[in-house]
Amino acid sequence: MVKINCPFCFLNCPLTIKKEKFKFAIHYEGPLCARGNTIPILLDSPKRLSLPLFINNGKKEEKNFKDVLKELVKDLKTYKKEEVAIGLDAYLKEEDKKKIYSFFKSFGIENIFSSYLEPDIFFSFKANGVKEGDLEKIDKADFILMIGDLFGSFPIVARRILKRKYEDKNVLLYGIDVFRNRAAGFTNQFLVPKIGTELLVLFLILEKAQIIKTKGFKIEEIEKLSGINPFLIELYSEKILASKNGVVIISLESGKSFEPILYSLLAQLLCNKKTNLYFIGLKNFNHLPLAISFGEILEKIEKGEIRVLINFGSILSFFYPQVYEKLKNCEKIYLTSFYQMPLDTLSSIYLLPQSLPIEDKNLIPPYSGSRTISEILEEINSHLKIDIQDFDYLKEKVYKEKDILERFNNYLSFYKENKERIENNLVVVGKREPFYFLELFEKDNYLYLKRERETKISLPIKIKEELPENLAILELEDLTSRRYFPISLDEKEKFIIINPLILE
Ligand code: SF4
User: Fold this and answer.
1) Which of 365, 384, 403 is the endpoint of a domain?
2) For ligand 1, atom 4: residue with the closest CA
3) Is residue 54 domain-shared with residue 143, that is, in the same domain?
């Protein structure tokens, strides 16, 4: 029996893993969500990678670990430092991220970036003066505002919120999401803005509560664009100001907002010194503020300035076509991976089996053939002999209110330009919970969205009956779904945004 913490989100729920006969089993120490419950399956999955592979134009060749690392060392010596980029993705232990960062910084590489593409990375942008809280704040809160689909993405947090609500009937539970998610039935009030107007609604609440200075904005025009009942804006702002000890909890989901950075910043403004609210951004992982963004790295690869890419951790980001299309300019790619992944469209890729973050010689033995981050770095350093120094990360980026309002102004222009497009077409948003939807309506071997509209569609979309008329949901846990969401680059931060899909 080994006591571990689930590595799949910042809650790190405790559990015990036991090997029973030939398979792993969980002994519960408390509740786990669906992701946590998959740990035994992941540890033993037949899809685990046990040998390095060289993938070239669809052909796979098995390789020896030491030989691949020798090749990597040769590349590190041959290519200029500025021609090499090091990516850090999800499912890396905090200490391992720091090891990788310090190792390659000590070697003189500056292009070290986060290759993580989920939007919780945007919580590393802070609104000036935001009061951040931890989950314990929920247990004493008199007012809880949930933004986004907490029940789908973080059910264990949702459980804690419901516990608070039911132990004290006076606690007010409010929600905002672009569709009535599963939390709606438990709330005192649930606001459903039209897709794209959720940022306008947060802005209007901030304005009504006089938390921000909105001089220069045409409030009536924004109200009209949002289409939201002004009574609801007033109600939300009233409760926000009346709270003596409240929390704003937000979950950002991929493909759900056209401007997730701003969505988070506006939610943070609700928790500035003018209110008694604390901000909780629900994260899967802690993200290091790094000097260069994924978007900038892709631009450099496109221009031929970066020629070698080495990535550690999960490789989910490389399933987005806009990402792997750009990687085609890279001459050498080394990706550590837990699983055998279908990367057949790329050429000159080495896939190296990496141990899961919960696999450790002293806990759960690493999967056969896989290596821990420490082992990989030690092997590389046996050739390079780097004198490894400790490097500090950058400070988090803080946005002043005026910069947030400038972003809002830009978003307003975007929304005005695209309003018709968004309203008159079907918009597909991402969701992380796979067990939530009703099946599509199928006829003559085609999938249709709604019987009354009979929209013919070739996507694996599942819908829920009470979704707004122009909204559909695509399940994100299915890797193949990821390719449908368009990707754009945030102009200012150069972060990659996974946008909702507008089906025109
Ligand atoms: S909430 Fe789920 S994913 Fe997060 S640590 Fe707990 S079990 Fe793991």
Assistant:
1) 384
2) 9
3) no
318 lines ligand 1 (CB under 6 A): no
9 lines ligand 1 (CB under 6 A): yes
Whether 402 contacts 41, CB under 8 Å: no
Concatenating the DSSP letter of every residue in 237-289 gives HHHHHH-SSEEEEE---TTS-S-HHHHHHHHHHTTSTTSSEEEEE--SS----
CATH (domain of 237): 3.40.228.10
Q: List the alpha helices (DSSP H) in 113-253.
A: 150-153, 155-167, 198-208, 219-226, 230-242
Looking at ligand 1, which atom is closest to the CA of residue 15? 7
Last residue in a domain, options 216, 246, 281: 281
Q: Is 33 in the pocket of ligand 1 (CB under 6 A)?
A: yes
Q: How far apart are CA 21 and CA 275, in angstroms?
A: 56
Look up tokens 């008694």; give the residue.
276
In which residue are the tokens 């929304």 written?
415
The answer to whether position 398 is within a domain reads: no
Q: How far apart are CA 6 and CA 364, in angstroms?
A: 13
- The Cα–Cα gap between 86 and 102 comes to 11
**Cα 48 from Cα 371, distance rounded (Å):** 12
pLDDT digits (tens, 9 = 90+) for 312-353: 998 888 888 888 888 888 999 999 999 887 766 677 899 999
pLDDT tens for each residue of 211-220: 999 999 999 9
3-state SS class at 89:
coil
CA 471, 257, 503, 228 torsion: positive or negative? positive
341 Cα–ligand 1 center, Å: 24
Cβ–ligand 1 contact at 12 (below 6 Å): yes
- For residue 77, give both structure tokens: 């010596």
